[in-house]
Amino acid sequence: QVQLVESGGGLVQAGGSLRLSCAASGSTSTINNIGWYRQVPGKQQREYVAVISSGGTTTYRDSVKGRFTISRDSARNMWFLQMNSLKLEDTAVYYCAVATRIREYWGQGTQVTVSS
Prior knowledge:
Oligomer: single chain
Distance between the termini: 40 Å
């Protein structure tokens, strides 16, 4: 089992920055890929934002490229999403998720609201 707790969400003006954190506990040695996803208001599906593989390869959703950066601190079992130049359309609940060989685990989500 892996437990995930996100933090760092909040209210920010357009153009501002936020840093999301994801802390993992439990069977962290089984974690392969780590990702950040978000659920935009009015949409049922969560959408992929950024992923970092066990080998360190990062991939980003086109709309956040150049603005968001995913990173990890393996020693502390923490992962981060640095979000710069935030836009109104980035407003969403952001989730940290990890994949093991057997299954995925999700955090409870943290709200990010970008205001004009």
